[in-house]
Design brief:
Blueprint (H helix, E strand, L loop, with lengths): L14 E5 L6 E2 L4 E2 L2 H14 L9 E3 L13 H16 L4 E5 L5 H11 L6 E5 L22 H14 L3 E6 L2 E4 L4 E2 L8 E2 L17 H13 L1 H8 L4 E5 L6 H8 L8 E6 L9 H12 L3 E6 L11 H4 L7 E2 L5 H14 L3 H13 L8
């Protein structure tokens, strides 16, 4: 098993920031993300001028080559950020802030929460609805007083300095376990919401790990790092949205995915997970299971999740569909993606999902 080069008893108490692009670092007319070599020195200057860092641990930036609009992120990109943070964690850092775009912020946060489950890492994911810099002033970099970016960064720094283990999303003056967060508004500053009643992976994080246990956790991740990177090149998660159509439409949509390598499918049902029944859909679900695909039912409603109380929804669980419980769509996406990347067979992936629910707990029972 590969061995980390990190000194076992050496942990940094500094905060590492990752700039990944998005609205936060956009500037000019038209708005476009600033290059890191321009944006990062400017941020350091502003932090010093605003005296934000006076009572914080040392702040530094992780070198990141992937800066793009978050709507363009792919599974391969998610793995890039996982690898970047894993390498820094291996070197003895454990407090991080990731600045990204809001389109897929909740997806990336939930994915990192799954990927680092069982560790004692502290990751705060944030962004903004308006750019940090005032584009009405193109002669010098100044903070836009009407932006939410500076407040979001300041609060994220405070949370990262506290160092509580786990992955959290910080936005609009609030913070939540990443797996519970969803975007609920396309342009308001209070664009995200979440809750604190979070089970796995949030409840798997250790307050602090003994050096030997941390080393073992890191070595376990390094042992499968190459295979995760390879699978990320062809892994996808699909969504099938229930609409008041002929029930045969759902079967047609699912059948269209069956020729692909084993993948994850999110079936977005009505209400508490009700899905129109048809014999064609039953056959498609059975075939999907036989070919190694994982189908998870979620609700189209933003709150409440799914249940098996209604016959209109419970029938699907007899045909290998997994109930998403109260997990958000982004959290279901993240868990499916991580299972497909991390484990090598459909049986192990389904076993790990079940283990997460029955042994470690999820929001399903909260």
């Amino acid at each position: 098993m590969p061995s980390s080069t990190a000194p076992l008893n050496s942990l940094s108490h500094g905060i590492q920031l990752v700039y990944a692009g998005g609205t936060f670092g956009s500037y000019g007319r038209p708005l476009a993300p600033l290059d890191a070599d321009v944006f990062l020195p400017m941020i350091e200057t502003l932090l010093t001028e605003q005296k934000i860092t006076a009572h914080l641990p040392a702040i530094s930036w992780l070198s990141n080559t992937l800066i793009k609009d978050s709507s363009q992120l792919t599974p391969k990109d998610f793995v890039h950020f996982y690898d970047l943070l894993l390498e820094a964690y291996k070197q003895g850092h454990r407090q991080f802030i990731v600045i990204t775009g809001t389109d897929t912020l909740s997806y990336l946060g939930a994915f990192l929460a799954e990927a680092f489950a069982g560790s004692d890492i502290c990751i705060i994911v944030t962004g903004s609805m308006r750019p940090l810099l005032d584009s009405d002033n193109l002669h010098t970099y100044t903070i836009d007083d009407s932006s939410d970016a500076w407040d979001n960064l300041s609060e994220s720094l405070r949370l990262a300095a506290a160092g509580e283990s786990g992955v959290k999303i910080s936005f609009g003056g609030e913070s939540w376990p990443a797996q519970t967060v969803q975007k609920i508004h396309s342009h308001d500053f209070m664009a995200f919401t979440g809750h604190s009643r979070a089970g796995y992976p949030n409840n798997s994080y250790a307050k602090s790990l003994p050096a030997i246990r941390r080393q073992h956790w890191i070595d376990d991740q390094l042992a499968v790092k190459d295979s995760i990177q390879q699978r990320a090149k062809q892994t996808n998660i699909h969504a099938i949205y229930c609409l008041p159509n002929n029930p045969e439409v759902l079967a047609i949509q699912l059948n269209a995915l069956l020729e692909q390598p084993p993948c994850g499918v999110i079936l977005l049902g009505f209400g508490a997970g009700n899905v129109p029944y048809s014999t064609a859909l039953v056959k498609a679900l059975q075939q999907a299971y036989a070919q190694g695909h994982i189908v998870v039912c979620a609700s189209q409603c933003p709150f409440g999740g799914v249940s098996s109380s209604y016959a209109a929804g419970s029938w699907q669980y007899d045909y290998h569909v997994i109930a998403g419980g109260r997990l958000t769509v982004s959290a279901i996406y993240a868990r499916l993606l991580w299972l497909l990347l991390r484990y090598d067979t459909p049986a192990r992936r389904r076993q790990r999902w079940t283990h997460s629910v029955n042994q470690l707990g999820t929001t399903l029972n909260k």
